[in-house]
Amino acid sequence: MKNVIPLIVAVVLGFVAVYVVNRTISKQNETSEKFVDVVAASRTLAANETLTEAFIHPRSVPLSSLPKQHIKWESRNMVVGQKVLHAIPKSDYVLLSDVGMTRSIGNVIGDGEWGTLVTFSDSSLVKMLQPGDEIVIVGAFDITQTVKRDKDVDAAPEVIRKRVTSVVFPRVRILDITSTGGVLLSLPPQQAIALTAIQMNAELYPLLRKTNDTKALNRKDGGIFEDSAIARMIDGLTAIDIPSVPTEVKE
Length: 251
Hints:
The protein has helices at 4-31, 189-201, 228-232, and strands spanning 35-41, 56-62, 83-84, 99-100, 114-118, 134-147, 158-173, 176-177, 183-187, 203-208, 224-226. By secondary structure, the protein is α+β, with helices and mostly antiparallel strands. The strands form four sheets. The protein has a four-stranded antiparallel beta sheet with strand order 10-6-7-11.
Protein backbone atom coordinates (compact mmCIF):
# COMPACT_ATOMS: atom_id res chain seq x y z
CA MET A 1 0.00 0.00 0.00
CA LYS A 2 2.90 2.28 0.86
CA ASN A 3 4.26 1.81 -2.68
CA VAL A 4 0.89 2.47 -4.32
CA ILE A 5 0.40 5.97 -2.87
CA PRO A 6 3.65 7.42 -4.24
CA LEU A 7 2.82 5.85 -7.59
CA ILE A 8 -0.61 7.50 -7.65
CA VAL A 9 0.91 10.82 -6.66
CA ALA A 10 3.52 10.49 -9.42
CA VAL A 11 0.83 9.75 -12.02
CA VAL A 12 -1.26 12.74 -10.91
CA LEU A 13 1.77 15.03 -10.99
CA GLY A 14 2.57 13.70 -14.45
CA PHE A 15 -0.91 14.60 -15.71
CA VAL A 16 -0.60 18.05 -14.14
CA ALA A 17 2.78 18.58 -15.79
CA VAL A 18 1.41 17.54 -19.19
CA TYR A 19 -1.55 19.89 -18.74
CA VAL A 20 0.69 22.81 -17.79
CA VAL A 21 3.01 22.18 -20.75
CA ASN A 22 0.07 21.98 -23.17
CA ARG A 23 -1.39 25.24 -21.81
CA THR A 24 1.99 26.94 -22.15
CA ILE A 25 2.42 25.75 -25.74
CA SER A 26 -1.12 26.86 -26.59
CA LYS A 27 -0.48 30.33 -25.20
CA GLN A 28 2.80 30.56 -27.11
CA ASN A 29 1.02 29.59 -30.31
CA GLU A 30 -1.68 32.19 -29.66
CA THR A 31 0.87 34.96 -29.15
CA SER A 32 3.27 33.86 -31.88
CA GLU A 33 3.81 36.23 -34.75
CA LYS A 34 1.85 35.84 -37.95
CA PHE A 35 3.61 34.79 -41.14
CA VAL A 36 2.92 35.85 -44.72
CA ASP A 37 3.79 33.97 -47.93
CA VAL A 38 5.68 36.16 -50.39
CA VAL A 39 7.17 35.56 -53.83
CA ALA A 40 10.76 34.27 -53.86
CA ALA A 41 13.07 32.87 -56.55
CA SER A 42 13.02 29.07 -56.77
CA ARG A 43 16.40 29.20 -58.56
CA THR A 44 19.00 31.82 -59.43
CA LEU A 45 17.52 34.25 -61.93
CA ALA A 46 19.60 36.05 -64.54
CA ALA A 47 19.12 39.69 -65.53
CA ASN A 48 16.45 40.18 -68.24
CA GLU A 49 15.10 36.65 -67.66
CA THR A 50 11.32 36.32 -67.94
CA LEU A 51 9.62 35.01 -64.83
CA THR A 52 7.44 31.92 -65.06
CA GLU A 53 5.53 29.99 -62.41
CA ALA A 54 8.38 27.45 -62.31
CA PHE A 55 10.92 30.15 -61.39
CA ILE A 56 9.16 31.32 -58.21
CA HIS A 57 7.91 29.74 -55.00
CA PRO A 58 6.26 30.95 -51.77
CA ARG A 59 8.48 31.96 -48.87
CA SER A 60 6.99 32.33 -45.42
CA VAL A 61 8.14 35.50 -43.66
CA PRO A 62 7.21 37.01 -40.25
CA LEU A 63 4.90 39.98 -40.62
CA SER A 64 7.39 42.27 -38.85
CA SER A 65 10.21 41.28 -41.24
CA LEU A 66 8.45 41.74 -44.57
CA PRO A 67 10.57 43.67 -47.08
CA LYS A 68 9.16 47.01 -48.14
CA GLN A 69 8.29 46.10 -51.75
CA HIS A 70 7.34 42.47 -51.20
CA ILE A 71 4.82 40.69 -53.42
CA LYS A 72 2.30 38.45 -51.71
CA TRP A 73 2.15 34.94 -53.09
CA GLU A 74 -1.55 35.36 -53.81
CA SER A 75 -0.62 38.30 -56.10
CA ARG A 76 2.15 36.45 -57.99
CA ASN A 77 0.31 36.83 -61.32
CA MET A 78 1.38 40.45 -61.36
CA VAL A 79 5.03 39.44 -61.95
CA VAL A 80 4.66 36.22 -63.94
CA GLY A 81 5.68 37.10 -67.49
CA GLN A 82 7.73 40.11 -66.40
CA LYS A 83 11.48 40.45 -66.88
CA VAL A 84 13.80 40.80 -63.90
CA LEU A 85 15.99 43.87 -64.03
CA HIS A 86 19.00 42.18 -62.43
CA ALA A 87 20.16 38.81 -61.15
CA ILE A 88 18.27 37.42 -58.14
CA PRO A 89 19.83 34.66 -55.98
CA LYS A 90 17.93 31.46 -55.30
CA SER A 91 15.37 31.78 -52.47
CA ASP A 92 15.79 35.56 -52.37
CA TYR A 93 12.70 37.79 -52.45
CA VAL A 94 11.31 38.97 -55.77
CA LEU A 95 10.38 42.60 -55.12
CA LEU A 96 8.38 45.11 -57.13
CA SER A 97 11.61 47.00 -57.75
CA ASP A 98 13.22 43.83 -59.20
CA VAL A 99 10.90 43.55 -62.19
CA GLY A 100 10.24 45.74 -65.19
CA MET A 101 6.54 46.02 -65.86
CA THR A 102 6.78 45.19 -69.56
CA ARG A 103 3.29 43.70 -69.74
CA SER A 104 -0.02 45.54 -69.48
CA ILE A 105 -0.40 47.54 -66.29
CA GLY A 106 -3.58 45.55 -65.70
CA ASN A 107 -1.48 42.62 -64.57
CA VAL A 108 -0.57 44.38 -61.35
CA ILE A 109 -4.21 44.65 -60.27
CA GLY A 110 -5.28 42.14 -57.63
CA ASP A 111 -7.77 39.39 -58.47
CA GLY A 112 -11.33 40.69 -58.15
CA GLU A 113 -10.11 44.25 -57.68
CA TRP A 114 -10.14 47.36 -59.87
CA GLY A 115 -7.30 49.76 -60.53
CA THR A 116 -7.95 53.31 -59.36
CA LEU A 117 -5.78 56.31 -60.20
CA VAL A 118 -5.77 58.97 -57.49
CA THR A 119 -4.53 62.53 -57.90
CA PHE A 120 -3.70 64.31 -54.67
CA SER A 121 -4.17 68.02 -54.04
CA ASP A 122 -0.58 68.26 -52.77
CA SER A 123 1.91 66.11 -54.67
CA SER A 124 4.94 67.02 -52.52
CA LEU A 125 4.89 63.72 -50.60
CA VAL A 126 4.04 61.72 -53.76
CA LYS A 127 7.43 62.69 -55.19
CA MET A 128 9.07 60.82 -52.30
CA LEU A 129 6.91 57.69 -52.53
CA GLN A 130 7.67 54.41 -54.31
CA PRO A 131 5.60 51.42 -55.43
CA GLY A 132 5.09 49.22 -52.39
CA ASP A 133 4.75 52.11 -49.93
CA GLU A 134 1.64 52.15 -47.78
CA ILE A 135 -0.29 55.38 -47.26
CA VAL A 136 -3.31 56.84 -45.51
CA ILE A 137 -5.70 58.82 -47.71
CA VAL A 138 -7.18 61.84 -45.94
CA GLY A 139 -10.01 63.88 -47.43
CA ALA A 140 -10.97 67.52 -46.80
CA PHE A 141 -14.50 68.34 -47.92
CA ASP A 142 -17.54 70.55 -47.31
CA ILE A 143 -20.66 69.16 -45.67
CA THR A 144 -24.09 70.66 -44.96
CA GLN A 145 -26.00 70.12 -41.74
CA THR A 146 -29.51 71.07 -40.70
CA VAL A 147 -29.57 72.42 -37.15
CA LYS A 148 -32.10 74.00 -34.81
CA ARG A 149 -30.96 77.46 -33.71
CA ASP A 150 -34.01 78.22 -31.56
CA LYS A 151 -35.80 76.37 -28.77
CA ASP A 152 -39.08 77.12 -30.51
CA VAL A 153 -40.20 73.82 -32.06
CA ASP A 154 -41.94 75.77 -34.82
CA ALA A 155 -38.80 77.68 -35.77
CA ALA A 156 -37.39 76.84 -39.19
CA PRO A 157 -34.16 74.83 -39.08
CA GLU A 158 -30.99 76.45 -40.39
CA VAL A 159 -28.75 74.83 -42.97
CA ILE A 160 -25.07 75.39 -42.27
CA ARG A 161 -22.06 74.49 -44.36
CA LYS A 162 -18.70 73.61 -42.85
CA ARG A 163 -15.32 72.21 -43.81
CA VAL A 164 -14.19 68.91 -42.29
CA THR A 165 -11.20 66.58 -42.67
CA SER A 166 -11.21 62.83 -42.00
CA VAL A 167 -9.63 59.54 -43.02
CA VAL A 168 -10.98 58.02 -46.24
CA PHE A 169 -8.74 54.92 -46.36
CA PRO A 170 -6.51 54.08 -43.37
CA ARG A 171 -4.10 51.87 -45.34
CA VAL A 172 -3.65 51.32 -49.06
CA ARG A 173 -0.63 50.06 -50.93
CA ILE A 174 0.78 51.91 -53.93
CA LEU A 175 1.12 49.81 -57.07
CA ASP A 176 2.61 52.44 -59.32
CA ILE A 177 3.16 56.18 -59.68
CA THR A 178 2.69 57.98 -62.99
CA SER A 179 5.05 60.61 -64.35
CA THR A 180 2.43 63.27 -63.59
CA GLY A 181 2.08 62.28 -59.92
CA GLY A 182 -0.98 60.04 -60.15
CA VAL A 183 -0.99 57.09 -57.73
CA LEU A 184 -2.33 53.71 -58.88
CA LEU A 185 -4.20 51.67 -56.27
CA SER A 186 -5.93 48.29 -56.42
CA LEU A 187 -9.23 48.19 -54.53
CA PRO A 188 -12.38 46.06 -54.31
CA PRO A 189 -14.98 47.35 -56.82
CA GLN A 190 -17.24 49.15 -54.34
CA GLN A 191 -14.32 50.91 -52.67
CA ALA A 192 -12.86 51.86 -56.05
CA ILE A 193 -16.18 53.43 -57.09
CA ALA A 194 -16.46 55.24 -53.75
CA LEU A 195 -12.93 56.67 -54.06
CA THR A 196 -13.65 57.84 -57.60
CA ALA A 197 -16.70 59.75 -56.38
CA ILE A 198 -14.94 61.11 -53.29
CA GLN A 199 -12.03 62.60 -55.21
CA MET A 200 -14.51 64.54 -57.37
CA ASN A 201 -15.94 66.20 -54.26
CA ALA A 202 -12.97 66.46 -51.90
CA GLU A 203 -9.33 67.45 -51.68
CA LEU A 204 -7.29 64.31 -51.02
CA TYR A 205 -3.92 64.16 -49.25
CA PRO A 206 -1.55 61.20 -48.67
CA LEU A 207 0.03 60.42 -45.30
CA LEU A 208 2.88 57.92 -45.12
CA ARG A 209 2.46 54.77 -43.00
CA LYS A 210 5.06 52.36 -41.72
CA THR A 211 5.00 49.33 -44.01
CA ASN A 212 3.04 46.36 -42.59
CA ASP A 213 1.92 48.33 -39.52
CA THR A 214 -1.32 46.68 -38.38
CA LYS A 215 -2.38 49.44 -35.97
CA ALA A 216 -5.04 52.12 -36.61
CA LEU A 217 -6.72 50.22 -39.45
CA ASN A 218 -10.21 51.34 -38.48
CA ARG A 219 -11.13 54.39 -40.53
CA LYS A 220 -12.88 55.91 -37.51
CA ASP A 221 -9.74 55.87 -35.38
CA GLY A 222 -8.59 59.11 -37.01
CA GLY A 223 -11.69 61.02 -35.96
CA ILE A 224 -12.88 64.15 -37.74
CA PHE A 225 -11.38 67.63 -37.70
CA GLU A 226 -13.60 70.67 -38.19
CA ASP A 227 -12.28 74.06 -39.20
CA SER A 228 -14.01 75.52 -36.12
CA ALA A 229 -11.46 73.59 -34.04
CA ILE A 230 -8.75 75.91 -35.33
CA ALA A 231 -10.40 78.83 -33.53
CA ARG A 232 -10.65 76.80 -30.32
CA MET A 233 -6.91 76.07 -30.50
CA ILE A 234 -6.13 79.68 -29.61
CA ASP A 235 -8.53 79.98 -26.69
CA GLY A 236 -6.65 81.20 -23.62
CA LEU A 237 -3.44 82.04 -25.50
CA THR A 238 -1.75 85.40 -25.04
CA ALA A 239 -1.56 87.60 -28.11
CA ILE A 240 1.94 88.30 -29.39
CA ASP A 241 2.96 91.69 -30.79
CA ILE A 242 6.01 91.88 -33.03
CA PRO A 243 8.07 95.04 -32.33
CA SER A 244 8.99 97.47 -35.07
CA VAL A 245 12.52 96.10 -34.86
CA PRO A 246 11.98 92.33 -34.49
CA THR A 247 15.53 91.68 -33.33
CA GLU A 248 15.36 94.32 -30.60
CA VAL A 249 15.73 92.97 -27.08
CA LYS A 250 14.03 94.96 -24.35
CA GLU A 251 15.83 95.06 -21.03
